[in-house]
Amino acid sequence: MTKYDERHGGPWDRGSADSYYRRQFRPPYYVGKTSQIEEVTEESMNPDEIDAYRAGYDYNESSRDFKDYR
User: Fold this and answer.
1) Beta-carbon contacts of residue 51 (< 8 Å; ≥ 6 apart)
2) Among 4, 8, 5, 49, which Cα is nearest to 27's?
3) H or E stretch covering 29
4) pLDDT at 6
5) Cα–Cα distance between 26 and 41 in angstroms, integer?
6) What is the pTM of this model?
7) What are the structural domain ranges in the chain?
8) How far is residue 70's CA from residue 67's CA, in Å, rounded to a whole number?
9) Helix/strand/coil for 30
10) What are the b/e assignments for 18-57, b being 16+ CB within 10 Å?
């Protein structure tokens, strides 16, 4: 099993957050903390970073932990 860097703003974190908030699959991540430093878009991500984003997204999808907007 692959261990991903789960730091706030990283690819795994952003994937799980996008799923939690029911946003579409769109791999970005931040060099530092979310929205405080440069965003790295999918076009600039390497395959390992995209894999980490997907793993975070898929993890949250499988756990069905979604924001309740009611």
Assistant:
1) 2
2) 49
3) strand 29-30
4) 87
5) 9
6) 0.84
7) 11-63
8) 9
9) strand
10) bbbeeeeeebbbbeeeeeeeeebeeeebeeebebbbebbb
What pLDDT digit, counting tens, does each position of 3-61 carry? 898 888 889 999 999 999 999 998 878 776 666 667 788 888 999 999 999 999 999 99
Alpha carbon distance 31, 37 (integer Å): 6
Place of tokens 């860097």: 5
Q: If we measure between CA atoms, which residue out of 51, 45, 57 comes closest to residue 16?
A: 57
Are the beta carbons of 29 and 40 closer than 8 angstroms? Answer: yes
In sequence order, what are the residues at sequence separation of 6 or more whose Cβ sits closer than 8 angstroms to the Cβ of residue 9?
29, 30, 31, 32, 33, 34, 36, 37
- The torsion angles phi and psi of 63, rounded to 5 degrees, stand at -85, -10
